[in-house]
Design brief:
Layout (H helix, E strand, L loop, with lengths): L1 H11 L6 H18 L10 H16 L7 E5 L7 H7 L4 E6 L2 H13 L5 E5 L6 H4 L3 E7 L4 H8 L3 E11 L4 H14 L1 E10 L6 E9 L4
Parallel strand pairs: 1-2, 1-4, 2-3, 4-5
Antiparallel strand pairs: 5-7, 6-7
Helix pairs in contact: 1-2, 1-3, 3-4, 7-8
């Protein structure tokens, strides 16, 4: 089920996915379902929904990332988009952070069994990361983690010069973008690009909001 859904779903939205990527996503899915029976990692427990709403969504985001970039995923939960990104882009260095210990323990487990290199899962609040990671990341992302304003405020100290923030949002993002313009400008940031896309099999609309630093131009 997972393999066929990923193959056909990726084809529907124009993404190329290798057999090895699908193999690793299958293992990830199995572990996610196994762990989720004991601890609450995700509300999505249907294999097809995992393939589409977690994996395909994350793979679309991965298309925006270059191999040499250093990426932070804030509030990563069960590891989305961090782990699918790492699977799809093995050369990318990824740090995943979440304040819930059990979710980070799960991510570390998956990273071990998939032998993911240059992948760190950190149990911490993002507010404390500036002590070690100030201005380190080329790309910082979050998926349904917080408001756009809060995401930018938390991410700003960690973003490298010339880097970008990519918020993964649902379809009702236009009003949020409009309402956040003033605050973003005060923080020295602006919405540079809005990428709208549809998940396959009529599973809803999604949006990537790319935010950059006005002062870094």
């Amino acid at each position: 089920m997972i393999r066929k859904t990923i193959e056909s779903g990726a084809q529907e939205i124009g993404i190329n996915v290798t057999d090895e990527v699908i193999r690793q996503l299958e293992i990830y899915s199995q572990e996610l379902l196994k762990w989720n029976r004991k601890i609450n990692l995700t509300a999505i427990i249907n294999e097809k929904e995992i393939a589409v709403k977690h994996f395909i969504d994350a793979l679309y985001f991965a298309e925006c990332i270059a191999d040499e970039e250093f990426v932070l995923d804030i509030g990563s939960g069960a590891g989305v988009p961090a782990i699918p990104l790492k699977i799809a882009r093995p050369a990318v260095k990824v740090v995943s952070v979440d304040a819930v210990s059990k979710k980070i323990q799960f991510q570390k487990h998956v990273a071990r069994i998939l032998e993911l290199n240059k992948f760190d899962a950190i149990h911490a609040r993002v507010e404390s990361m500036h002590l070690e990671y100030a201005k380190q990341f080329d790309v910082i992302t979050s998926r349904a983690f917080s408001s756009l304003e809060q995401f930018v405020k938390l991410s700003a100290p960690l973003l490298a010069d010339g880097g970008r923030l990519i918020a993964m949002k649902g379809p009702a993002s236009a009003e949020e973008i409009l309402n956040s313009e003033k605050t973003l400008k005060e923080l020295g940031f602006q919405v540079e690009t809005i990428i709208n896309y549809d998940l396959p099999f009529n599973n809803g609309k999604r949006c990537l909001i790319v935010v950059t630093c006005c002062k870094c131009k």
